[in-house]
Design brief:
This protein is about 30% helix and about 10% strand. The chain is α+β, with helices and mostly antiparallel strands.
């Protein structure tokens, strides 16, 4: 719930639109400011990715939660 409250009170949008490609990317600087790293520095070669794509998942809700918790 804290993450949702932080997103609501952000001054800048978390997603940035690019006019030439029509795609949106995450604003990493603002994200790191609002959600600081807990574990430490990012390992060498580690890549962060985010998407706003959506889809439907036809699965029982408890099975979905179990799958995501692994």
């Amino acid at each position: 719930m804290n993450e949702l409250e932080k997103l609501i009170h952000m001054k800048n949008p978390i997603w940035i639109s690019h006019s030439e490609s029509g795609k949106e990317t995450i604003n990493h600087e603002d994200c790191l400011h609002v959600f600081p790293r807990i574990i430490g520095e990012k390992p060498i070669g580690f890549v962060s990715e985010a998407t706003r794509e959506s889809g439907n998942v036809i699965i029982n809700n408890s099975v979905l939660v179990d799958t995501l918790m692994i």
